[in-house]
Amino acid sequence: MSFEIYHFITSYNYYIIIFLMISGLFIVVSKGNMVKKLVGLALFQTSVYILYISPGKIVGGTAPILADGYTIYSSPFPHVLILTAIVVGIATLSLGLSLVIRINEEFETIEEDELFNNELNDE
Amino acid sequence: MNEHAPALVAMLPIIGAILIMLIRHNHLNWLIALLSGFGTMYYSIILYLDARSMETISYAMGGWEPPVGIEYRIDEFNALLIALISIMSFLILIYAKSSLSNELKKNKISTFYSMYLLCLGGLIGILSTGDAFNAFVFLEISSLATYVIISMGGDRRGLLAAYQYLIVGTIGATLYVIGVGLIFIITGSLNLYDISVKLGDVELYRPLLASLAFITVGIALKIALFPLHAWLPNAYAFAPSVGTAFLASTATKVAIYLLIKYLYLVYGFDLVYSNQIFIFVVLSLSVLAMFGASVIAIFQSNLKKLFAYSSVAQIGYITLGIGIANYNGLIGSTVHIINHSIIKAAIFLAIGCLVFSSKIVNIDQLAGLGKKMPMVAVCITISSLSLIGVPGTVGFISKWYLVLGSLEQGWWVVVFALAVSSILALIYVGRIIELIWFHAPVSSIVSENKIPFEMIAVTVLMTIATIYFGIDTRLTGDLAKIAVENVLLGEQL
Predict the structure, then answer these.
(1) CA dihedral B231, B237, B242, B244 (to 10 degrees)
(2) Which residues of A touch B184 (CB under 8 A)?
(3) Domain residue ranges of chain B, discontinuous segments joined by +
(4) In terms of Cα–Cα distance, which of B117, B477, B428 is closest to B328?
(5) Class level of CATH domain A3-120
(6) Cβ pair B156:A106 closer than 8 A
(7) What global pTM score does this model have?
């Protein structure tokens, strides 16, 4: 097997990440329903978490806990970062959803087409 | 205590925010906010004086040494902006009490102060941190607080504006994180100073360029650079007046600093500006902002929206200086960050006075204002003239440096663009001034409330600042020069 093909196959994780990233962003752009948009946003953010976690894994490495008989450890650093990023993501998503609830109470719809055409451009 | 000033400036507002949320007292909330705002201002000034007397302050957060621990790195540039932002937000806090009790429901006021301080803490954190990921966390802290501030304006369209900004802002922050992730994969470090050293040895040019693109676009969404500005006008228009003044004078400026930091201190002048496409994109978007946003501003009928579009145009001036990227261009950018912050605070605070006294929202309601509320009318007139760049006001100083910078590069097109965009600004400002001074008062609007002393006082103070710093440039101009000479162009000069 040539080097290029080997390289292509072993970096399959990045293709998955890019696919998830683009699908998330596509949902945000294409959907008019506010909840669906937030779902797309969450997918977009989550794919970035995997982008961080992925290079931290070392082939043959164990969990980063000191123990006899193990010399290769995976990097714990990305996990720590992503723990923070997950918290940030949850905060954003919950604030977004609560805004959607308030919008639904005030306007009785959460379809962007109806809302933005009627409300923001009426002057 | 003073050696902990880098941590205190970011922590004091956040502690204040938590206290206000816990106590939720109708009168104490303002006092706590004022106190922590004052503490932040005090330590930010100490921090600036320290940064001037020492080389660069490196503060290891929690005692964990960099590059593994989070480092707070204070130099003359970000210390200047920290001082600017904490002074502005303290003055706006003095103004806030009466304005908020008029515009918000009683049970919402504590939440507003809390979000205001949280946003301030986040912004100062972005300025002071030397860690790429920490900057993202602070970016999100300030953004989340901003979404809440925007949605509290009382107008139900504020909810839509907040939602719109939440989607765009989160995409921006996520793009930024992707860029940081790529840098992390290349260099294995998140400390910005450490990264800038390690990037010198990097041979993989393409991922580096990709990370630059992701970070630039991500931050540009937060800056509201021209085609990415859609969230800004609605957000400014429907937020409470205090919130608009605060956001307009601080939030976008901090994002611009973050961009400057990446371009000059992390990637480095040579890497960024050897790339012709990058300069072309930054320059053309800045010029488009100066034109496009000014033209849209001419056709606005909502007063706050008009000045929001003018903000987008003025941001174009600042990024123009970044694109020009010589000594004078960068001074122009830095001075305009300070000057625009003062001008927009003055204008939006004056509009807040109008909303307070007679609920003025649209431009045609301004007719005859010069006779009814001469004080506020003079403030709006002077600070609007400052937007155009009339000599004797701060706007002139920034434009002067930008013109000098582009002449040095021999870019006559840019000089022409600066002139034309000033004329466009003259059109929308002229319309307001004409209505204020040369039209008969509209009878339907009667002045209802007497504007409290402190609201007028802060507005007048800001207006005087726009003239004072336009005549005596020793403070703003020289501090900007020191910042640019010592920090940004340290190696080039």
Answers:
(1) 30
(2) 52, 55, 78
(3) 334-493
(4) B477
(5) mainly alpha
(6) yes
(7) 0.93
